[in-house]
Every structure is written in structure tokens, then in C-alpha cells.
Design goal:
The protein is mainly alpha-helical. Helix content is 54%, strand content 7%. It is built from 9 helices and 4 strands; from the N terminus they run ααβααβαβααβαα. α3 runs antiparallel to α7 and α3 crosses α9. The longest helix is centred in the middle third of the chain and has 20 residues. The N and C termini lie far apart (49 Å).
Length: 193
């Protein structure tokens, strides 16, 4: 057997989660933490992170994220394909072992319980709730946006490197008490187009 090596990133696996709730408004992420996150890309050749943390840059990127969300919703096929990832029940989640659930939406407790009891929202209503959450919660309260870039986004090996970097960043952020989530609507829309 090999030698066991302790890893803070491994230890963070059970603690990480995607934060779809509001972030602490008006709070910035210290530059050394953004630099630490970006430095994780050095371990994966060809990957890097570009940060958008000034108010102007956040406004510009946030507007693009909202516009991409609107474009996904307006594209009925893409919206329907995205809706297939939603797991409305515990049974569905156990059967599929993937997807997005109500519990992962950071809804207020009473609304979360009601949503589980009531019939599911129509696709149109769910899309509007997603757009509202993107605009009013995710984009409006984010302290920074990061863009993971690779030399060729059409090369599957490069895409995997970018995904590996995101996983490392998410785990490292967890060890530092930072809440993060992927807002990948721009990438999804670019792939669709």
C-alpha cells in the first residue's frame, strides 16, 4: 500500500456545496484569496482565471450573465433541455444521482416546504424564478466573477482541465470559508449558438 498523504482539498469534499443563496452584500473578497484561487490553475497547464471584481467589471459581467439567462429561457428547446436536470423528488434524485433540487435553491424554509408539497411549477414559471434569482440574488450580491479560460474551449481535454480547475477552486474556497457557485449561462449559451 502507498503512503497516505493528507490533503485539505480532499478533506473539503464533504463540506463543499454550491451556494445559490445571496452573498453578503457590499463585502469584497480580498485580493490574496482571489490570487490563491487563480494560482490553482498553475497546476493544470493551459488553464487560467480572469477576475472581474471592480464594480464596473462586475456590472458588465453580471449583465452578460443575465442576458445569457434570458437567451436560454427564450430558446424553448434549450430551456426544456435544462429543465430535464431538475429533480422534483427524493426518489428522482436517488434514481438519477445527479441534477438540481429544491433543497439546493437556498429558498426560505417555508417556501421550500410549500414547493415540495405543491405541484411543480410550469417550465415558464420555473424559468422566470431562475431569471429572478440570477438577477436579484446571484449577480446582484456577488463580490467577484471569475472566468476560467483554456487555449481551446472546443478541445474536450482542455474542457476537462477547466472543469478540474473549477473543482479545485471550489474545494479550496470551501477551506477558506468562501461561498461560490458556477454561473455558467454564458458558456451554455455560447455552446448552443
Amino acid at each position: 500500500a502507498g503512503t497516505k498523504i493528507a490533503s485539505p482539498l480532499y478533506d473539503a469534499i464533504a463540506l463543499r456545496h454550491t451556494n445559490r443563496g445571496p452573498y453578503e452584500a457590499g463585502k469584497s473578497v480580498p485580493a490574496e484569496l482571489l490570487d490563491g484561487l487563480a494560482a490553482l490553475g498553475a497546476e493544470l497547464p493551459g488553464t487560467r482565471v480572469i477576475w472581474f471584481s471592480t464594480p464596473e467589471a462586475r456590472s458588465r459581467v453580471g449583465g452578460l450573465i443575465v442576458a445569457a439567462t434570458e437567451a436560454i429561457i427564450a430558446d424553448h428547446q434549450q430551456s426544456a433541455d435544462s429543465a430535464k436536470w431538475f429533480r422534483a423528488s427524493w426518489q428522482q434524485l436517488q434514481e438519477m444521482r445527479d441534477g438540481i433540487t429544491l433543497d439546493a435553491q437556498s429558498l426560505p424554509a417555508l417556501i421550500n416546504v410549500a414547493a415540495k408539497i405543491l405541484p411543480p411549477l410550469s417550465q415558464e414559471s420555473a424559468d422566470q424564478a431562475w431569471l429572478q434569482a440570477t438577477r436579484e440574488r446571484h449577480v446582484a450580491t456577488a463580490a467577484a466573477f471569475g472566468l476560467i479560460v483554456v487555449p481551446n474551449a472546443r478541445d474536450n481535454a482542455m474542457r476537462i482541465r477547466g472543469g478540474r480547475l473549477w473543482q479545485r477552486m471550489h474545494l479550496w474556497a470551501t477551506t477558506k470559508g468562501l461561498a461560490v457557485q458556477p454561473l455558467n449561462q454564458m458558456s451554455e449559451r455560447a455552446d448552443r449558438e
